[in-house]
Amino acid sequence: MNDSRLRQFQAAGPPADLLISSVYVLDPRSGIDGARDVLIRGGMVAEVAPADSLEAPAGSERVDGRGRHLFPGFVDPHVHLRSPGQEYKEDVRTGTTAAAAGGFVSIIAMPNTAPPIDSVPILEAVIATARAEARIPTGFLAAITVGLGGRELTEMAALRDAGALGFTDDGKPVTSAGLLRRALQYQRLVGGALALHEEDPELSGAGVMHEGAVSARLGLAGIPSVSESTFIARDAALARYEEAAVHFQHVSAAESVEALGDARIRADTSGVRISAEATPHHLTLTDEALTGLDTRLKMNPPLRTEADRQAIVDGLRSGLLTCIATDHAPHARHEKEQPLEQAPMGTTGLETAFAAVFSELVRPGVLSLALVVERLSAGGEPFGLAPPTIQPGVPANLVLINLEGRWVVGAHGYRSRSANCCFDGRRLWGVVDLTIAAGQVAFRATADGGHPHRQEDR
Prior knowledge:
Largest sheet: 8 strands, mixed
Distance between the termini: 51 Å
Structural class: alpha/beta
Helix content: 25-40%
CATH architecture of the largest domain: Alpha-Beta Barrel
CATH topology of the largest domain: TIM Barrel
Shape: globular
Number of helices: 13
Number of domains: 2
Strand content: 15-25%
């Protein structure tokens, strides 16, 4: 199975036939930036024409796009679906429904499930579930080590042949440099990429938030930023030595951005592929938000300082951070309703990713809308997936958004099974009206007469 397009799976549905008329299309890759009519037939983009120039063919639906923006759909390379084994938190159906509600047309799921996705039978089982239940194309990363134990490599070649997009022990670092080197050697042979959660456990210790002034004020154990940056520097050097492909997950610290900058300079002359992601929460929040001890704001890596946040924004703008990923990590209410020290780490984010970044960074003029759209739709590239684009002859992967719509996160519930969202209660701009994924209507705001992101009266 060499074609990465065959490594994503979704439930079959009817192809879309509709005309989105007089909509503002912004597609950084195709160069479209203006009002257009977009015709979709049989799930494919059939025509992109000047606004108000097309008629809906017989049997096709017409969607009035006035006052709306149409973007290439978003792709999230870092999602926890909790299936198998922890479906009380999330499953393939609820997770992909939440993703579609957030404008995502493709996601990549992590293997730290129960049991972990570390063998061909388990991978085949989750692929079968995705074929039956996924609302949007869903791919899977397999574990790098057996049981995520960090001691023995999985059968990477067999897992790749069975459909794995790549490999990760996400949630845990590969602490052994020798073992990671062997994994990089296998990666070079079988393809895909290694997605790395970078953390030195000896430095992180029992930390529950960023190590700094806020943790000292609260009397809580901290996680130093060098816990992340030192492993990024080490693993980038190993990847360069082995001419392998690595993707650094949820980068959170200024020192990490510096390490990435050094690595990318050397990578440009060696042929190694290095990519990295930023999350909406690390782009928009800091450790000051934890002064209220809200466990929905506890995640790993933790929220860090304003200087770190600004470094992440700068890294995204410069291209050192190549995409935006949510690290959507659902937990049940009873798990998060504990003291901060005991509560599990993680926040949901699929339904809020665009709105949070748009509200906090685009509207104030910190980042351009085009850059954010490009980074949100680039998540599949490290794993060989072509990014969505809006042009004739390609499958329809797009999202229709009302940028002037406002909503309060969580006020009308979530599509996710879990509600541990770090943006809960925030009033955000940007309401998703329609998501078409792989040519199928995956989400429509009015499909059931209601919408958890319902626009506020203005």
